């Protein structure tokens, strides 16, 4: 397994690994990540071994990292070849991120059955390159033939963690975990695994006004914005109702506690919100490739299944949108009802079925 850099690559990979372990109880699963990236901590925490490659992305401008990129690439290809030779996998799976390029490339050269997952409506450069070499390309959206060979495509959906897909955590358990009360509604703010500066800035500037609505707040900031957010919460007269955290591991508890959500609009974030059926305000990352997060969010907002708020308007309009959603049970109920149309089969199961086909085909 290889997927990393962001939670949108890591957590689908872990979800697939967990489902594979259910089907193949004695399977040996090895992850391959990029040294220094978040997968090197998140994957072992999920219970899987991981090896790191010395690899990073190629920037569009001249940087020191770009000068070292050829050396990193050669080093990573050599180590990936060694890993494949030693581990002798029956199948190799990539979910995006720097490390998946060298690993899947070497696995395909060694005639190992290969599968990649592209959960966004616009593929990353690694998956674009790998799509020509691998056996199967699993996608979450229709119309991906413009990026990948049509005969390799399988529309499976975007895999999410089992505890979120089948959310059984009660609201009381969620509230207790975060030390919140039952009387007031809870706003969950999530900017992705690394946080979202645009969302964090908008929340920080409106923090007291949001809390003054009688709303409790769970605010996941990412590392870079954590100190500023923590300071802002500490100075707030409503600080007793605000929980600031760099990262939330128990997302099932956060979703269970939440009455409404502010979120980025990556494929996995949307898939999770659809699965748990919570009303959300989506603030897409404006720099996302081909503006795919806006397209993701618009697919819901046009059907009344969410609210789309451009980041450039967030500072001035976020309080209005939160207030309108918090104060209207009818509006929240309508969004929840409309979200039901977006629910799909278990995407993780669909992907594991494709892995099965690859393994059995080569036996």
Account of the protein in words:
- With 363 residues, this protein is an alpha/beta fold.
- It folds into two domains: 7-157 and 345-361, Rossmann fold (3-Layer(aba) Sandwich); 164-342, Glycogen Phosphorylase B (Rossmann fold, 3-Layer(aba) Sandwich), CATH 3.40.50.
- 47% of the residues lie in helices and 13% in strands.
- The strands form three sheets. Strands 9-8-7-10-11-12 form a six-stranded parallel β-sheet, sandwiched between helices. Strands 3-4-5-6 form a four-stranded parallel β-sheet, sandwiched between helices.
- Strand 1, helix 2 (39-45) and strand 2 (50-53) form a beta-alpha-beta unit.
- Helix 8 packs across helix 13 (314-327).
- The model has no long low-confidence stretch (mean pLDDT 92).
Describe the structure concisely.
The protein is α/β, with parallel strands linked by helices. It has helices at 7-23, 39-45, 64-87, 100-109, 125-130, 162-165, 171-178, 197-211, 223-235, 251-257, 267-276, 292-301, 314-327, 329-339, 347-361, and strands at 31-34, 50-53, 92-94, 114-118, 136-139, 153-155, 186-190, 216-220, 242-245, 260-263, 280-282, 307-308. Helix 9 links the parallel strand 8 and strand 9 (242-245).
């Amino acid at each position: 397994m290889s997927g990393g850099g962001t939670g949108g690559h890591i957590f689908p990979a872990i979800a697939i690994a967990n489902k594979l372990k259910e089907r193949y109880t004695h399977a040996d699963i090895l992850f391959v990540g990029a040294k220094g990236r978040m997968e090197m901590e998140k994957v072992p925490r999920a219970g899987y071994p991981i090896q790191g490659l010395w690899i990073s992305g190629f920037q569009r401008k001249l940087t020191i990292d770009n000068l070292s990129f050829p050396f990193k690439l050669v080093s990573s290809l050599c180590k990936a070849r060694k890993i494949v030779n030693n581990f002798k996998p029956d199948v190799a799976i990539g979910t995006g991120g720097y490390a998946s390029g060298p690993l899947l490339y070497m696995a395909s050269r060694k005639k190992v059955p290969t599968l990649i997952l592209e959960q966004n409506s616009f593929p990353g450069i690694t998956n674009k390159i790998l799509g020509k070499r691998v056996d199967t390309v699993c996608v979450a959206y229709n119309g991906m033939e413009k990026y990948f060979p049509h005969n390799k495509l399988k529309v499976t959906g975007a895999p999410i963690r089992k505890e979120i897909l089948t959310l059984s955590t009660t609201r009381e358990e969620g509230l207790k975990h975060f030390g919140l009360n039952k009387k007031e509604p809870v706003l969950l703010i999530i900017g992705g695994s690394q946080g979202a500066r645009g969302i964090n800035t908008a929340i920080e500037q409106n923090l007291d006004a949001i809390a003054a609505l009688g709303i409790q707040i769970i605010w996941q900031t990412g590392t870079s914005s954590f100190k500023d957010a923590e300071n802002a919460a500490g100075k707030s007269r409503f600080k007793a109702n605000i929980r600031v955290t760099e990262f939330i591991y128990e997302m099932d508890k956060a979703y269970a506690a939440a009455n409404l959500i502010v979120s980025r609009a990556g494929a996995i974030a949307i898939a999770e919100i659809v699965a748990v059926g919570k009303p959300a305000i989506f603030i897409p990352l404006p720099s996302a490739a081909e503006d795919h997060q806006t397209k993701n969010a618009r697919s819901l907002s046009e059907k009344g299944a969410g609210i789309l708020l451009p980041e450039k308007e967030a500072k001035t309009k976020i309080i209005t949108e939160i207030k309108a959603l918090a104060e209207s049970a009818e509006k929240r109920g309508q969004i929840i009802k409309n979200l039901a149309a977006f629910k799909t089969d278990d995407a993780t199961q669909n992907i594991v079925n494709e892995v099965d086909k690859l393994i059995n085909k080569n036996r």
